[in-house]
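tokens incoming
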């Protein structure tokens, strides 16, 4: 999981940005999993998943690490004043709908 505050780049505007969204896919996978990513294969948008009660589109890709290829999937949602990016490894169906808020 990667959480970040949503930032407002300009005062007095309605624009808000998720800083994690500006990172490349390999860095997002690194932050979410702790893997050391050497490369990211072609990404594909997958099925709709639920994360923190919000529908989101799943992105999948195979990443290359020093230990070999790893299947990954990730999705991102806004959550209050922040955003949450969830990353799963290993293929199969990731349990994004099991993610809950603490408190």
């Amino acid at each position: 999981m990667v959480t970040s505050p949503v930032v407002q780049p300009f005062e007095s505007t309605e624009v808000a940005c998720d800083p994690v969204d500006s990172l490349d896919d390999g860095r997002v996978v690194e932050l979410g999993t702790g893997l050391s990513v050497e490369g990211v294969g072609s990404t594909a948008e997958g099925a709709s998943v639920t994360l923190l009660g919000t529908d989101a589109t799943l992105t999948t890709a195979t990443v290359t690490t020093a230990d070999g290829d790893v299947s990954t999937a990730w999705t991102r949602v806004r959550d209050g004043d922040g955003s949450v990016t969830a990353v799963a490894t290993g293929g199969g169906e990731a349990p994004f709908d099991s993610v809950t808020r603490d408190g």
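note: Strands lie at 2-5, 37-40, 44-51, 54-65, 68-79, 82-89.
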